[in-house]
Sequence to fold (306 residues):
Amino acid sequence: MDKKQKIYNKLMKLVKEENVKVDEMLKDHLYTRLGGKADFFITPTSYEEVQNVVKLSNEDDIPFTLLGNGSNLIIKDGGIRGIVINLKHLDSIFSDGDTVVAQSGARIIDASRYALEKHLSGLEFACGIPGTVGGALYMNAGAYGGEIKDVLEYAYVVDKHGNLVKRMASELDLDYRTSNIPDSGDIVVEATFNLKPAQYSEIKAVMDDLTNKRESKQPLEYPSCGSVFKRPPGYFAGKLIQDSELQGTNIGGAEVSTKHAGFIVNKDNASTSDYISLIEHVQKTVKERFGVDLEREVRIIGEDKK
Fold:
């Protein structure tokens, strides 16, 4: 029996059969529609299953990667070795007084809409963010002047040893598009947001306004990874790219959006290498034109295609 079969047999004892996939194409699960195969693609249905998979990866020294819906992620064409875990089945949202509790696999958009239905204000900024709750905490997602750190009270995580641990927001070092979650190895499984009662009509008016702004300015008709670059101090990334006359520039199937220069869209079955090459071209051009280094907001992981 080869090593891959042994790992599969062990995973089958920890997770339901239908939630263990071998050589699964990751682009089929990602917002960007990019990415090669995962050796093992696991979709747990409980915190205990997450804990058990983490413990197995530690015991057998199996590479381990957590994956949301990829709205701010690019996976290389060679895919990811070892275990890829996706928490899409952990997607419950409920309220407790003035708090909204959302599991990691729920979309942060849906948490925002749920808060609206409960007449709770604070998550309006998230009404157009396409990522999951876990992904939103991972990068302290934000938009239109709001961000996760403004409303997060605490989270439950599975730590790198497989323990279920409560982390207060103050322990996560939430800052502009960053947190300490990537370095700690924690897997967010649940988040509690502290919100404020407000009138339904007032909350909805804000959300409608933000939605209109987003739909009018962002290229939602194509898959993308959202804003590719962080805002450089004193500048706007999109304006620098626009002023560099890069809108409409394409490499393969990837294109700098003509609607919003800060986005690179998957216009025609782009490969990850197309995306990365175009990102590097944009960075090089803006540096030459304005002397500004554009830092990626989007993460790039995985292996090159052999």
About this structure: The longest strand covers residues 187-194.
